[in-house]
Structure to design on (920 residues):
């Protein structure tokens, strides 16, 4: 992942629009072929430049470009260009991409566009929009190539040619041809490649693979995406309860879903609510809303550390050097716990750890925790010695570190597994949450250890 | 992402092997079609069961299954079965998958296998193994379909049929056909679909798209994977400096690379070194090694919190209630910083934030930090009031919270950007690291504020 050298682009979109000829736009499309750079440059145009660009670029070219743009840039572009033009481009897009863009628009922006799209296409789009946004069906391409299983390979190719208009540009959608019965029920799949490689008079029935991995339309998008990737499919049919083929989920849709989910998980792990818009487009007020909820929850949860400290006020006054080690001890507990939860949650979200592995996880983490505790106790002894706090406090710090590391290991392995058991996504457990839980309990462990080990606290 | 119901599987692999007929294995393959469940069950077989399974399963079926298994399960299976058999399956696999498995084996395990593979195939595999593991070329499939651009569509289909042995099972590899000149230099790409849909006597030259996105063999695997996804390609040609076609990187390879990279980033963010093996296979000793380095680094870094506290020992003895708020204040600073770095690092690793956005990021984060600081100061006042610490300490806590939140916002937005500037992967900045940095500086801010605001500390 290296920084993209946008500065070295010799021709940018603004200059191409200023030149104002279709040839300049063509040249720009040739020179800037990375969709990420195109998105960047498009995002910086003014409304007037957008309108000018709309006149210069043929509908088919605009649709091809809109297919690979970052979604939020595509959506903004649809907002910026006149409705008539936007509807033409929308009609030229793959239906799943068109629906994705419509879904991101407000209903008041969406309706005029849908009204301007040809009626039969608008029906398809409205149908796609009825599926829940997090379902597999919301991401499916309904324009699927189907053939009758009674024909020959040559006949199937002829049927496919009749539908070539459906194919547009997306190689994923054209990868498989589906065999269906008279009622549209899926009977199997045949690859384009097999159609080509077979003799012309081979019955399609011989080429059809009946054993197809399918998915129900309401399946969660993340589960559906993982299935596409696990089976290394180019596209997976979405099939209703009656076995009817509704559309396909392609592997590039699956990649998009996986990336969005990984971003949301990363944000949750960092103790925020997921942003839902690209970072640079989030206003400070939105960032604040997404962050302040957890900050306040954690603040309230951490407030009991004050109560714990107040409870041990006498001990603290008697041996004020105990306070020196508070940040170090609770920090180490939080770090230990954060390491475990992030590794464990990632392993769970990639299906490498399941509920039945609870025993193995606990044994592994407690064994690891014992090794970690030993190393940290040694480090704690060294640090306490350099601060010159005397033998009993040195011992207190070392013993407390062992207990805190083991305790942090235990709760940070149990909590994600427990949440999964309760059917809550364990990704809600953030590093900050684990740190907060360990902070207060760590203080109790520390002061209790001190009371036991320090002679001057014996009477308190 | 729901827990997989493995317990409801009616036939498991161990029972199928115990029955001991090829039909039982066939039935198992039919019943258990999810590669994740197959991997689980295969991983639990003993060496004797592996050998028995090897006798029961035809080579082609074994190769098809090995293609989708989890890598570590596939590698273990190759270790468990006799060399002769393993070499047969290896030869039947796609070369990129075979190389991936060989790369995971020790050289002493690898050599006998390579020696048992047919010579011309072994040359291809050895060539793949020479590329660095993190390069695009290490993941490429060298078995590419090529045609001469001077032929017609029908002629191209005939050429492709001659090479059908190259195609094996992978639909990604067969998605495009590449036009090359006499020296193997890439001239363009033609899709299978276009070959089928064109009239038989159309010259291939008319169907060829000369404007192909390619990548150099030594490109970093993560950058290469992101390019495949951004352009929505099924496969991207890997081309050397002379324009020669070396192989292709397919979109399922790109998905695998993206998943591995996301896991490594998640582990780094949690303050561990990446594990490199699946979690359940990591021994406590390995987990300890991956974790203890950062724990000790952070412990040493956090040790200065003790020095800071010692420097303010007189203040702490004079107003011991100041200690009550230490975990709360430094915890809030750490949480604020962790929220920012995780969001920012994810946005950078998905190309949503680049170096040129430094100014926007800083303005956005400082504006957000101001809003957060106001809310946290209010929360801090409430908490200090409930602990009954009196007006001056309440004010100290509120002012310190504002300063700590703003400070945490500043350093946690600057550090990732600075690392990117220095060409260090910003994903090395973990939540624990930010917390540690904020802990000590937060204490200095807190005690300095107290010295200014508390009359009883005026003389110290």
């Amino acid at each position: 992942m290296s920084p993209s050298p946008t500065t070295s682009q010799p021709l940018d979109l603004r200059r191409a629009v200023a030149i104002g000829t279709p040839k300049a736009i063509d040249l720009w499309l040739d020179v800037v072929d990375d969709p990420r750079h195109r998105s960047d440059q498009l995002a910086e145009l003014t409304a007037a430049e957008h309108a000018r660009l709309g006149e210069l670029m043929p509908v088919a070219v605009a649709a091809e470009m809109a297919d690979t743009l970052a979604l939020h840039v595509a959506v903004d572009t649809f907002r910026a260009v006149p409705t008539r033009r936007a509807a033409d481009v929308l009609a030229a897009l793959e239906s799943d991409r068109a629906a994705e863009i419509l879904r991101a628009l407000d209903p008041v922006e969406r309706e005029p566009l849908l009204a301007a799209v040809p009626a039969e296409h608008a029906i398809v789009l409205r149908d796609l929009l009825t599926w829940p946004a997090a379902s597999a069906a919301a991401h499916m391409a309904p324009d699927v190539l189907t053939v009758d299983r009674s024909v020959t390979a040559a006949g199937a190719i002829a049927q496919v040619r009749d539908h070539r208009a459906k194919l547009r540009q997306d190689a994923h959608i054209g990868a498989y041809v589906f065999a269906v019965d008279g009622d549209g029920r899926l009977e199997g799949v045949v690859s384009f490649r097999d159609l080509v490689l077979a003799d012309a008079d081979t019955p399609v029935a011989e080429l059809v693979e009946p054993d197809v991995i399918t998915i129900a339309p309401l399946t969660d998008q993340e589960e559906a995406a993982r299935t596409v990737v696990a089976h290394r499919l180019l596209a997976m049919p979405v099939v209703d309860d009656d076995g009817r083929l509704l559309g396909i989920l392609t592997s590039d849709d699956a990649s998009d879903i996986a990336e969005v989910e990984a971003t949301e998980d990363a944000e949750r792990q960092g103790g925020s609510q997921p942003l839902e818009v690209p970072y640079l487009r989030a206003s400070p007020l939105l960032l604040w809303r997404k962050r302040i909820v957890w900050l306040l929850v954690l603040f309230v949860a951490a407030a009991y550390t004050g109560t714990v400290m107040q409870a041990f006020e006498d001990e603290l006054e008697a041996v004020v050097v105990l306070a020196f080690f508070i940040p170090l001890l609770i920090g180490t507990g939080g770090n230990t716990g954060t390491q475990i939860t992030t590794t464990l949650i990632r392993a769970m979200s990639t299906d490498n750890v399941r509920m039945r592995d609870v025993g193995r996880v606990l044994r592994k983490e407690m064994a690891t925790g014992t090794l970690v505790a030993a190393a940290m106790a040694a480090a704690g002894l060294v640090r306490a010695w350099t601060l010159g706090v005397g033998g009993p406090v040195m011992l207190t710090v070392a013993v407390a570190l062992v207990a805190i590391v083991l305790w942090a290991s235990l709760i940070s392995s149990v909590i994600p597994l427990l949440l999964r058991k309760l059917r809550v996504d364990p990704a809600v457990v953030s590093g900050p949450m684990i740190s907060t839980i360990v902070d207060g309990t760590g203080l109790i462990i520390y002061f209790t250890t001190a009371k036991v080990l320090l002679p001057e606290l014996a009477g308190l």
User: Anything to note?
Assistant: The radius of gyration of chain B is 30 Å. Chain B is about 65% helix and 5% strand. Chain B has three domains: 10-130, 146-259, 303-457.
